[in-house]
TrEMBL record:
Pfam families: 2Fe-2S_thioredx (PF01257). Keywords: 2Fe-2S, Iron, Iron-sulfur, Metal-binding. [2Fe-2S] cluster binds at C89, C94, C130, C134. One of its GO terms (molecular function) is metal ion binding. The lineage of its organism: Bacteria, Pseudomonadati, Pseudomonadota, Alphaproteobacteria, Hyphomicrobiales. Binds 1 [2Fe-2S] cluster. Belongs to the complex I 24 kDa subunit family. This is Formate dehydrogenase subunit gamma. Its cofactor is [2Fe-2S] cluster. It comes from Acuticoccus mangrovi. PROSITE patterns: COMPLEX1_24K.
Length: 164
């Protein structure tokens, strides 16, 4: 079982005070919403639901506007990601060389859907639409590291390492 107290990837639990402190650091900026959201996600691993009204109040904008930005950008998460995030390219160039099969294989092996996280919190799998490695597809981004020419053997190795 995963022990969060010993996990170097564990993020602190969000509190209103912490959220207000983070938001306050960016109030001096023109157009601070995106930097605030990035800072919150960096701090907590996602955008906590409790942050939406705090941001709205501190920026004097509507909650729906904040929520709309969070849900529009695919990199913002409304729930924490796993300790490892595997993004698999699903763009046309990668599809032409087998990306759909690689994605299906990864999802089946992990027992999750796209954007899903394994029950033990080890791995989150997300689709992306172009990593700029079109000549080396199918491509993946594994914990921020680009991997090209992902085939069945390589995705199996990636999943085994992420679940270790």
């Amino acid at each position: 079982m995963h022990n969060a107290a010993l996990d170097p990837y564990a993020k602190p639990a969000p509190t209103v005070e912490t959220i207000e402190s983070i938001v306050g650091e960016y109030l001096h900026l023109e157009g601070p919403l995106l930097p605030i959201l990035h800072a919150l996600q960096e701090s907590f691993g996602h955008i906590p639901e409790a942050a939406i009204p705090v941001i709205a109040q501190m920026l004097n904008i509507g909650r729906t506007e904040v929520h709309g930005v969070v849900t529009f950008y695919h990199d913002f998460r409304e729930a924490p990601a796993g300790r490892h995030v595997i993004k698999l390219c699903q763009a046309e160039a990668c599809q032409a060389v087998g990306a759909e099969a690689i994605g299906a294989r990864a999802l089946a092996k992990l027992g999750v859907d796209w954007h899903g996280t394994t029950p033990d919190g080890a791995v989150t799998v997300e689709p992306v639409y172009c990593l700029g490695l079109c000549a080396c597809g199918p491509a993946a981004l594994v914990d921020g590291k680009v991997v090209g020419r992902v085939d069945a053997t390589k995705i199996d190795a990636i999943l085994t390492e992420a679940n270790a």
